[in-house]
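Students often ask what a 'structure token' actually looks like in practice. Rather than answer in the abstract, let us consider Hexosyltransferase, a protein of 401 residues. Its sequence is given first.
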Amino acid sequence: MGLKLVNRHQRGGGGVPTRWVSFFCIFSFFLGVLVVNRLWGVLDPVKLDEENSSVKTRQKRELLPSINCEKKETSTRAGEIFDQVSETHDVIMTLEKTISSLEMQLASARAAKASNQGVPAMATKLRNKQFKDRQKVFFVMGIMTAFSSRKRRDSIRQTWMPQGEDLKKLENQKGIVMRFVIGHSATPGGVLDRAIDAEEEQHHDFLRLVHVEGYHELSSKTQIYFSTAVAQWDADYYVKVDDDVHVNPGMLGLTLARHRSKPRIYMGCMKSGPVLAQKSIKYHEPEYWKFGVEGNKYFRHATGQLYVVSKDLATYISVNRYANEDVSLGSWFIGLDVEHIDDRTLCCGTPPDCEQKAQAGNPCAASFDWSCSGICKSVERMEEVHQRCGEDDGAVWSTKF
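Now compare that with the structural description of the same chain:
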């Protein structure tokens, strides 16, 4: 068809008619206008601080595609039109990625603005300074725990988590922060809170959240964890892990270091399980009907026992609420420029599985039993798993990240 068009117009002197060039230029112009409108439509009417304004101005200039709309010479051929269409497609893909990146940056800017609303100017400046002065670390590992899980925490302290001065040394020398993550009881200052206070006094390994503990509040707890961790540490990665999982910190760090050059990653053992519609099931989905007919599956997401998100994504999560924890986390990332990394070293089985893999030269970063969504009877078995599948005590210190 393109060839016929050229032949028809070659009678009048050859080349592509001017109207095709004009059409392409007009299309490109309106494309740029639509993209800019889409992006700046999400902004709040209130101006952000000077730093955010300069970022927006610079990136707005970068958004608009550079199109050469000069009149083409009469010798232009039909193939050049198709080349330009291909280039336009590439521009669209680039713009989509740019929009995705800017949406996350804007979410971060909104978070900063929202946290300063109603705060005196001097206090706002102090808070912003504290945010900029956050300790720079490699990764923060939040170990989700509960008031009733003292024995689980002790089993981890006695195996794969350094204690006392070694925990501080790990943070200062290797940039690895490990904390048990817990909120408060429904009765502030009660016996449960006092027990955690006493445990913290002894071990100094808790991250306390402004959050009321409870099974039905797990999703909000995870979101608050990311918000709190992002506000306290400037990390490359933020890890969420359950307190009945065995972790090899050195192997985990080595795994994360391989992806350090990538801007936005979501790492874990990816799955796509069925939507659970029955109310009697533990992980019942109240709004299962939104996923379509019975038998549908969830979108791809990392299993909840352990997953990792990079800095930009952790910031994005911190200012957007979601439900059903690991499943909904996957839904947030569908429309963003995020690389999903399915890494099976993060979900090895307990012995003999992890032991055989270690002997074959493929050590695991984390181990648990799928049947129990963690190590079955973890308090009794954590030591055994550590003895058979754990890395050497010096591995985390000798590994270069």
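One point worth highlighting: Confidence is low (pLDDT under 50) at residues 1-16, 33-49, 114-120. Ask yourself how you might have guessed this from the sequence alone, and why that guess would often be unreliable.
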